[in-house]
Specification:
- The protein is α+β, with helices and mostly antiparallel strands and 339 residues long.
- It folds into two domains: 189 residues, Porin chaperone SurA, peptide-binding domain (Triger factor/SurA peptide-binding fold), CATH 1.10.4030.10; 106 residues, Chitinase A, domain 3, CATH 3.10.50.
- 52% of the residues lie in helices and 13% in strands.
- It is built from twelve helices and eleven strands.
- The chain has a four-stranded antiparallel beta sheet with strand order 7-6-9-8. The protein has a three-stranded antiparallel beta sheet with strand order 3-2-11.
């Protein structure tokens, strides 16, 4: 079993920033991976790069490659065509992190012993037993707990530095978000949407007797539907008696625009309040009843509705720019050698 020292903010920033280095930090090619064309990597501890004299090994490189492309863990290898791309992205990332670590040390940033002890304790929780933990120490750190603690300290310093120089500086205030919202009102326009559930009777083609039977079924269906008081009650009834394809999804059509529904359904929906069920609606030879889940009027989405997504999107953009600028700055004057 493999264990890694990973901290949430470092991984998050890595996922955001590596897009400038590789086409996708975690390529979604699960259905396209040819099992017979996978590249496996042997870890020997050899140096793959030096940053201002500090050696980075293939162990660091492969660990980062798995972080970029975790799917490889399931198949013990990387897609042959993607492996060079993933390798370059991982190499750039471990060089970047080493530069960040060295800058954090240059600024005399520290991690308290109490924080280090807490993180070490959390790290140990990954292991099912003391024996498993000791085996990990032996394989990865030659049995040295101190070496492991220094690796954890290093990760925490990187995390702290990136929070200070990237995360905190990328935050988007409410004032900024509202200003962008006001300047781009057209972007937040939305169409009129109807969210409904249906129960339908769809009779086969036939004569008067079939039409009369369909009408009787529909009237009985409508009466039962009126008794459904909740989304789940209506949905379970749809599953049991509806003829339309939406029965497999609790009768739920999901929000759709006005132009995607028949005029008769639109008319009925406009007369309902959320949670109410319509009278029987005839559509040619078919019958249906609808339950209105929600009706959203056309217009501009309220700021409160889009605020969180707007802030998140803008912060991601700022993270990319700040991280790229930081990487460029740290590389200036640095001695970087790749082997």
């Amino acid at each position: 079993m493999k264990y890694q020292i990973q901290f949430a903010s470092v991984i998050l920033l890595g996922a955001m920033s590596a897009s400038a280095q590789v086409a996708s930090h975690a390529p979604s090619l699960e259905g396209a991976l040819p099992p017979a064309r996978l590249t496996t990597l042997q870890v020997t501890g050899k140096t793959v790069a030096r940053v201002n004299g500090a050696a980075l090994t293939d162990r660091d490189l492969v660990r980062e490659m798995f972080a970029i492309f975790p799917y490889a863990k399931q198949h013990n290898g990387f897609p042959e065509k993607l492996e060079p791309q993933i390798r370059r992205g991982a190499l750039d990332m471990i060089i970047f992190e080493e530069l960040v670590y060295q800058e954090a040390k240059r600024r005399n940033m520290t991690i308290s012993d109490a924080r280090l002890a807490r993180e070490e304790q959390e790290f140990r929780k990954q292991f099912p037993s003391t024996d498993a933990y000791q085996q990990f120490l032996k394989e990865e750190w030659k049995g040295s707990r101190q070496a492991l603690r220094e690796k954890i300290r290093r990760s925490l310093l990187i995390e702290a530095f990136l929070k200070q120089e990237v995360v905190d500086k990328s935050r988007v205030s409410d004032i900024e978000a509202r200003s962008i919202y006001n300047q781009n009102s057209q972007k937040y326009a939305r169409e009129e949407l109807f969210h409904i559930q249906t129960i339908s009777v769809l009779p086969p083609a036939g004569g008067v007797e079939i039409a009369a039977e369909a009408r009787r079924r529909a009237q009985n269906m409508a009466q039962q539907a009126k008794g459904a008081k909740t989304y789940q009650d209506f949905g379970l009834l749809a599953e049991n008696i509806s003829d339309d394809d939406y029965r497999v999804n609790m009768g739920d059509h999901k929000p759709v625009g006005r132009n995607q529904l028949p005029p008769e359904v639109i008319k009925a929906a406009l007369a309902l309040k959320p949670g109410e069920v319509s009278d029987l609606i005839q559509l040619g030879t078919a019958y249906t009843v609808i339950r209105l889940v929600a009706h959203t009027s056309a217009g501009q989405a309220p700021y409160a509705e889009v605020k969180a997504q707007l802030q998140s999107d803008l912060q991601k953009e700022r993270v990319e720019k700040l991280r790229a600028a930081l990487g460029k700055k740290l590389r200036q004057g640095a001695r970087i050698e790749t082997l």
